[in-house]
Request: fold
Amino acid sequence: MRVVMSCRAFSRRIEDRCLEMLFDRFRVDEIHFQFEPTPRNGPTGELFERYLDSKPAGACSLSLARFRERAPQLYQHVESIEH
Reply:
């Protein structure tokens, strides 16, 4: 599965809510990512760095436990609409 998000959504904690939704929807204990740093995806790198304690490059993983430990308080309500 690929997830793409506009940079306009970042820094509003929407990215954290999306991670939470992925953990909840797929009922997994870990999510694996492939991250390639570019000049345009700095906000995504900062998000991963907050959770992983290091700048990501290539393959990285985020556990549900680490996510819950470090996620900020989330205020949004998101509805998933299936087509």
The chain has one domain: 9-70. The helical segments are 14-26, 42-52, 64-70.
